[in-house]
Each structure stands twice: as structure tokens, then as C-alpha cells.
Write a structure and sequence with these properties.
Layout: E1 8-12, H1 18-21, H2 25-35, E2 39-43, H3 47-57, E3 62-65, H4 68-73, E4 86-89, H5 98-108, E5 113-116, H6 122-127, E6 132-134, E7 153-158, H7 166-178, E8 181-185, H8 188-193, E9 198-201, H9 208-212, E10 215-220, H10 234-240, E11 245-248, E12 264-266, H11 272-280, H12 285-302, H13 305-320
Parallel strand pairs: 1-2, 1-3, 3-4, 4-5, 5-6, 7-8, 7-10, 8-9, 10-11, 11-12
């Protein structure tokens, strides 16, 4: 197979409501693959039967899957890796839940390449017979950068709430008690139950730029900061939407963005209020706009899903030609 040849992939999609799928990373990635000239055959259900059908009628170069649920609930799918490579691009941090970690290890041993961000685990993975490759997520389609001198929000946060977010929730609660914080979330009932003052429904990705342009500070707080090189894609989405971001520092993020130029790293979350006080000042408006424009440009130059797909394809080609 020639390295520059356009490829055809089967893409396994988890079942979800259509309105959630259209705004999902899978949907964005598929659109970018197609934009780059590749063929994607999505499968949403009856995975085993549908894969056989597609293999009989198409020349398939590989199967891509992001979801741990699909592979853990349909282990029989892993036998296809003997016929055609399965590439598992796992977005989530499996270490957050021991049960998911054990599942991911069992699955990763049986796929061709395990694309993920758990860099500190790579030596362990290799010893277990897994082939890991570090691959980040990214920002989606380029949205208009909206300059602004007037603000409707002081501080905003986009994100959900569940048991693994306890530390992040405590930080947000402290900020909510001391500042004018607005949360956009699918977990409105849970946040309101905890007493957060300004809680609004989640908004689609294509409207984020309209909100962040009217906001002084957008918080990017990861669910956990324990894993080097393992941050949420939220940083790329927010910067790619033109937000001025304060983000908790995770080792490796400096390879993607420059502190004080593209966004602001918070290396000590205990001092987050001091950092907020500094950047909330109206005299910092021009500086915030300068930084958020830098971050916006960096996200769309270096961290789009087109960038990620090209890395993905280069790694696959390198693997094929070893």
C-alpha cells in the first residue's frame, strides 16, 4: 500500500441520541477524514454482522473505534484484527476507574495500535505486548474569532459533574462562592443541587465562540491532574473558539501551548484565586484579547483534527512499512 494512497476505514460509532452524535468527537473526526479525501464507512449497530458485510463488498484498510463500550461488550469483534488492523483511538483516561483500566488492557492487547494519551504507562503497556502511540484530540472547525471590549460573564466553565470530578467540583465551588461564575453543563440538576448560583444548559460547539468572546476568563479544569500528557480536549476546543483560558498545568501541555502567550497555566491550584484576581481586572482586557488571539491561532495551526488525522495516518503507514 502506497503511503499517500487514500484509505477506506470502517468507523464504529457508539449508540447515542442523534443530537449528541452530531456534536461528538467521532462525528467531527469522520467529517475531517472525508474532507482529506478518505472514505469512512460508519457502523452504528450490529457491529459484527455489518463489518462482515462491508468486508465482503469493500476494500477496507482498517477499523477505527474510540469507544471502550463497543469493544468490551462485543469482544468477538477483536478477532477481525487477524484479518484487518483495528486502531483503537481511546479518548478517555482509563486510570480514572480501575474497572475500565482492566478492560482497556485486555482490549489493547488485541488491537494493532492503541492510540491514547497515557504516556507514563507506555513502558508498562509495551511490556504487556501492547503497541501504544500518543495521540491527542483537537479542535474542530474554525469558528470566527470575535473581538470584544464588553463582557456578559466574568468567569465561565464548560463541563459535567460526576464522582471522578470531586476535586474539580470543590475548586469550582470555591470560585462560585467568591466570584461571578457561570457554568454551562449537561449536569444542570447536579450543579444546582450543590448550590451553584449560575447554572445553564450545555451549548453546542458551534456557539462556544459567541459565549467566550463575552467572557473575561474561561476555566479549563481537567477531571484529574495526576497523569502527565493526559489532559482533556477542552483546552483545544476553548482556545480554538477564541477563549482566554486559565488551565490547570499538566506535564507536557507546554509542548502544545505557551504559558502567558496562548493561555495561562495554573501550576498551583491553591493559588487559583490570586490568578483570577489578576486577570479579572478591566485593565487586562487588551492583554487578555492578545493572548486569546494567540491561543486561537495556535489551536487552528497546530491542533486541529486534520493535524491529528495526518499524524494517525503517518503512524499507520510507519507501522505497515516496518
Amino acid at each position: 500500500m502506497k503511503k499517500n494512497e487514500k484509505k477506506t476505514f470502517i468507523y464504529l460509532i457508539p449508540k447515542r441520541k442523534k443530537k449528541h452524535y452530531n456534536d461528538s468527537s467521532e462525528s467531527i473526526i469522520i467529517k475531517k477524514f472525508i474532507k482529506l479525501g478518505h472514505t469512512i464507512i460508519p457502523i452504528y449497530s450490529f457491529y459484527f454482522i455489518n463489518i462482515i458485510s462491508k468486508l465482503l463488498t469493500n476494500k477496507i484498510d482498517g477499523i477505527i473505534v474510540n469507544s471502550i463500550k463497543i469493544l468490551s461488550k462485543n469482544r468477538l469483534l477483536l478477532i477481525f484484527n487477524k484479518l484487518i488492523p483495528i486502531y483503537w483511538w481511546y479518548f478517555d483516561n482509563s486510570l480514572l476507574k480501575e474497572k475500565n483500566y482492566l478492560k482497556s488492557i485486555q482490549i489493547a492487547k488485541k488491537v494493532s495500535i492503541f492510540f491514547n494519551k497515557h504516556y507514563k504507562q507506555f513502558n508498562n503497556y509495551i511490556k504487556m505486548g501492547i503497541k501504544p502511540i500518543w495521540l491527542d484530540q483537537g479542535t474542530s472547525s474554525k469558528k470566527e474569532f470575535i473581538n470584544s471590549q464588553k463582557f456578559d460573564y466574568d468567569i465561565i466553565f464548560f463541563g459535567s459533574l460526576n464522582l471522578v470530578h470531586t476535586n474539580r467540583t470543590n475548586i469550582l465551588k470555591n470560585i462560585d462562592e467568591n466570584y461571578n461564575l457561570t457554568i454551562f453543563t449537561p449536569s444542570t440538576k447536579q450543579f444546582k443541587k450543590l448550590g451553584f448560583k449560575n447554572v445553564l444548559p450545555a451549548i453546542p460547539h458551534y456557539d462556544i465562540n459567541k459565549i467566550v468572546s463575552k467572557t473575561k476568563i474561561t476555566l479549563v479544569l481537567n477531571a484529574t491532574t495526576k497523569e502527565d500528557y493526559c489532559w482533556s480536549n477542552r483546552i483545544h476546543i476553548m482556545l480554538g473558539s477564541g477563549a482566554f483560558c486559565l488551565t490547570d498545568y499538566i506535564v507536557g501541555i507546554e509542548n502544545s501551548y505557551t504559558d502567558g502567550e496562548d493561555c495561562v497555566f495554573i501550576k498551583d491550584l491553591n493559588s487559583i484565586n490570586k490568578t483570577i484576581n489578576h486577570w479579572l481586572n478591566d485593565e487586562k482586557t487588551n492583554e487578555r484579547n492578545r493572548i486569546r488571539l494567540n491561543g486561537y491561532n495556535k489551536a487552528h495551526e497546530k491542533h486541529t483534527y486534520e493535524n491529528r488525522i495526518n499524524i494517525f495516518l503517518n503512524k499507520i503507514n510507519a507501522n505497515e512499512y516496518e
